[in-house]
Amino acid sequence: MTPDERRSLLRRAFDAGVAAAHPAVCLPAHLPAPPKGRVIVLAAGKGGGACAEIAEKFYRETYGLGPDRLVGIAVTRHGHARPTEWIKVVEAGHPVPDAAGLQGAADTIALAEQAGPDDLVLALITGGGSANWVAPVDGLDLAVKQATTKALLRSGAPIDAINSVRKHLSRIKGGRLARAAHPAPVFALAISDVPRDDPSVIASGPTVPDPTTLEDARAALARFNVEPHPDVAAALSNPANESPKADDPAFANTSFLVVSRPADALAAAIRTLEEAGVEVRVVGADIEGEAREVAAEHAAIARGLSGLTKPVALISGGELTVTIKGRNGRGGPNQEYALSLVNELGGVANWAALAGDTDGADGGGGSPEDPAGAVVDPATLERATAKGLDPAHFLAENDSTGFFEATGDGLYTGPTCTNVNDLRIVLVDIPD
């Protein structure tokens, strides 16, 4: 393959993975029949707007429901809204929550509390819902919640640790949305963006029992050296903020189903690669860890491939992290992974790699124009060298976005309206 053909194949594989996880593909088959009363749609996350759009269309066209029996609100990331007629769609901050998310969460809780025994609360949950649904516990204001979120994101903490804190500082996460709706039935359909598809971690588990405790939340802050604000420390020491557990009556009439998971996106990408004659080796479907360290491991595998009779793709999923040490760097784990590959594979020929977040945004400031990741190959280093750019320097500054803006290797997809975690492919071609 030529360099352009390698890049094109990587992009096709990534796009196939994203398409397989879109709500239009995975949601309709699982939407339940309407109850005697209303269908109350409560959606959140980067796919929340698309889920609301699909659900509204389904109930209108399949069952003829009107606005008297179909109501709801979806809170999604800025730039991810979709057109709906009866279900309200709110754009809010991610990864740092904002005032729009605060109001959207308040309206969501209020609507859940209005549900009656003849209604069905249909929770459509996608990754990003933890930031979009922000409802701080008493004594905690939005500014403190924002600062805590930023500190956790910079710390390199994995998503389950971050969410253990979020759940104990919230009036909607960690099963509390189910408590608000009780005793109305709650049916949650989720698109998973977390390793191992743990329902209590997806969007911080708003409708399921929370296995973590206040003590776990305090331990997470200590483990990742996040000094809590006094109000946070007080909240995490208040027994009233303990999340509901499995024996709570709130879960007596709830159900939960994952309708799409990272493994589905991985499978779709694998099919695309294999149809192009590539041998695929899965190096991990639920990988966690520091982005640069995982990239170094994958680069070592790539360098060790020899005697190839056909191209080989090393493919992986999961959610990597970045411990931010640079002062003004920009980027996320996929871009840092790709930048580390460039640094590790200098001098190696006939390779290309793509690392991208399936939601279309990798780090960044919450803009729809943020990069999804990067696509790199030996020419990336050649362009960097020609411009006097040292990949190691940009790694030290955690400025992967700055590096790829200069080399032109950023991956830009725009909002995909779904989220099934990261997808990374390292393609090693037959030597010329």
Automatic annotation (TrEMBL):
One of its GO terms (molecular function) is glycerate kinase activity. Pfam families: DUF4147, MOFRL. SUPFAM superfamilies: GckA/TtuD-like. Residues 312-422 form the MOFRL domain. One of its GO terms (cellular component) is cytoplasm. InterPro entries: GK-like_C_sf, GK_N_sf, MOFRL, MOFRL_assoc_dom, MOFRL_protein. Residues 10-235 form the MOFRL-associated domain. It comes from the Bacteria. This is Hydroxypyruvate reductase. It comes from Methylopila jiangsuensis.
